[in-house]
Structures are given as C-alpha cells and as structure tokens.
Design a protein that fits this description.
Elements (H helix, E strand, L loop, with lengths): L2 E7 L6 H9 L6 E8 L5 H11 L3 E6 L4 H11 L4 E4 L5 E2 L3 H7 L7 E9 L4 E4 L4 E4 L1 H8 L11 E4 H6 L11 H12 L3 E12 L11 H22 L6 H16 L3 H14 L10 H13 L5
Parallel strand pairs: 1-2, 1-4, 2-3, 6-10
Antiparallel strand pairs: 4-9, 5-10, 6-7, 6-9, 8-10
C-alpha cells in the first residue's frame, strides 16, 4: 500500500526540518512526499533541496503564493498513492505513523481517523479520543462531533479513489478551508473508522493566521465561516440523515459570531437573521430547545 504525503510549505524555515525529518524517519517505506512550495520567501527551499538530495521519493512543486487550499489541491493532483495524507509543514508525525496506519487499513475504508498531540512551547498535551469500528459517514460524524478536533484535515487518511472520484477540493482564498470541506467528505463516505493512536503532533504557535485578531482578518474569517455554512447547507439539503451535520455548521457559525466584538456583531446580525441559521439547530433535548429559543429571542424572530 502506497501513501501520498502532501506537505504545503510557506515561510516555515523554523519548523520545516523537523517536519520532513519526522516523515523520513518512518520505518514504512512505500510512500511519496509531495512538497508544494507556495511561494516561500525565506530559506524553506534550501531545506527542501537538502532532502531532495537525500531521498528519491520526493515530488517537488514550486508555485507562486496561492494559499494553503491551492497548495493542497495541487498536491492531490500530483499524488499517485492509494491513500492521501495532509501534513502541515510546522507539524510533525511519529516515527511509527505509517506503519501503524497501514496496519489499520486492511478493510480499505474511505477514511481513517487517528488522534492528535498538541505541542506548546512549554508543554505537550495528548488528546485521547476513543476510536470506533468501521461505519458509514453519517454515523461516524455523530461520533467524531464529540471529539475536540472535528474538521482538522490532517487527522484523516483519505482513500485516493474516494477523494478523487468525488472531485473534492479545498476552496481557494478562504479561511476555515477545513470547516468548509471535511465534514462534507465525512458525510459522503461509505466507510470510516477511527483509531485511538496519537500519531500527529499539532504545533500551537503564536502569530499563526488563525490566531490573528486583526480586524480585517476577523471580518474575513466571519465572512468565510458564513460562506462555508451556505456551501454545506446547499450540499447537505440533498442528503438524508444529515441534521446533526447541519446543526454542527449552524452551531459553529453562531459560536464564531458570539466571539465577535460588539461593533462587528452589528455588521452580521441581519445576515444571521436573514439566513435563518438557528433553524438548523437541533432541538432534540431540553438544553438544545432552550438554546434555540434564546437565539430566536436574541434576534427578534417570531416564535
């Protein structure tokens, strides 16, 4: 079984060596590493070239800066493996990662989920989640939604034929590209399982794109969250038994709205009301019924 490991790179000279070294330290050897240099302006390319000289299973793509989504999509297009893995270039994997993963793919699922370790400057925290046996995408999402990380694309192995046959693509030019796509990928899968193996190390660093509080970026993030909500609802409305996934998109969108400063909230209140986002919140228990009721009062919706 061959793996395609896709590593987008953009100005990560401080972290890239550790990332690539973790990949090439794996005992399992049937894999290719597709490195997409997305217009880096630092010394990332020098580090990449060092690994190209040492390893013959690297596919190197150099392109002008187009963003993470475009880099991942290009990597998928170049991939030739049976399964696709996304690895961010400031993160790293365990040395037994591919060996453990390959031993859990005997039933050839569309997706395999594994778990994550958060790496901070002064501590490391393992996120332990119970795995589950092979099931369909809807049932799998109902289990995954209870995890800490749900739509993080780096925590799934994707069967190439499933991914490519469905023409999945990360949307270019948006924040929350995983939120936009991964729950949809999960929902459409015929077979998913999750293992409790912690194989991915997720670096928590200050100054990253997602931690920025710049007002223009905050507005852009909210715009993209709403865009992702609309995209998901348009897709899921054509599917059955997706109420929990719609609830997830609606609940996450409202959660991000509630985090906004009051002045920015005013910009979105009518939009939230117009889209009737709270209509997609489930009310199958008392807590959810109360929450939905409160939202309707908050937004002056007729009860």
């Amino acid at each position: 079984m061959k793996f395609s490991l896709i590593v987008p790179v953009y100005n990560v000279e401080k972290y890239l060596d550790k990332c690539l070294n973790s990949i090439f330290s794996n005992d399992y050897k049937n894999y290719e590493v597709i490195i997409v240099n997305d217009g880096s302006k630092d010394n990332s390319e020098e580090i990449i070239n060092k690994y190209i000289e040492m390893h013959d299973n690297i596919i190197y793509v150099k392109q002008k800066n187009q963003g993470l989504s475009a880099a991942r999509n290009e990597g998928v297009k170049r991939s030739t493996g049976d399964y696709i893995v996304f690895i961010d270039s400031d993160d790293y994997i365990e040395c037994d990662f591919l060996k453990i993963i390959s031993s859990n793919l005997n039933d050839k699922p569309d997706l395999l989920r594994y778990q994550v370790r958060e790496v901070y400057e002064n501590k490391i925290e393992n996120i332990y989640e119970d795995g589950f046996d092979l099931t369909n995408g809807i049932d799998a999402f109902n289990k995954i939604v209870k995890y800490k990380y749900i739509e993080m694309s780096q925590l799934y192995i994707y069967k190439s034929s499933y991914y490519k046959d469905n023409k999945f693509k990360f949307q270019k030019g948006i924040y929350h590209e995983d939120f936009n796509l991964i729950p949809i990928i999960i929902s459409k899968a015929k077979s998913i399982k999750s293992i409790d193996y912690i194989g991915y190390n997720y670096l928590q660093r200050e100054g990253s794109i997602m931690s920025s509080n710049d007002k223009e970026k905050v507005i852009k993030k909210m715009d993209d969250t709403i865009l992702s909500f609309n995209n998901a609802i348009s897709i899921l409305n054509n599917s059955v038994n997706t109420e929990n996934i719609k609830h997830y998109y609606a609940n996450t969108t409202l959660y991000k709205y509630n985090l906004l400063d009051r002045s920015i909230k005013r910009m979105y209140k009518n939009k939230i009301k117009e889209l009737k986002i709270f209509d997609y919140l489930m009310n199958n228990n008392l807590k959810r019924r109360i929450k939905k009721f409160i939202y309707k009062i908050k937004f002056a919706i007729n009860l």
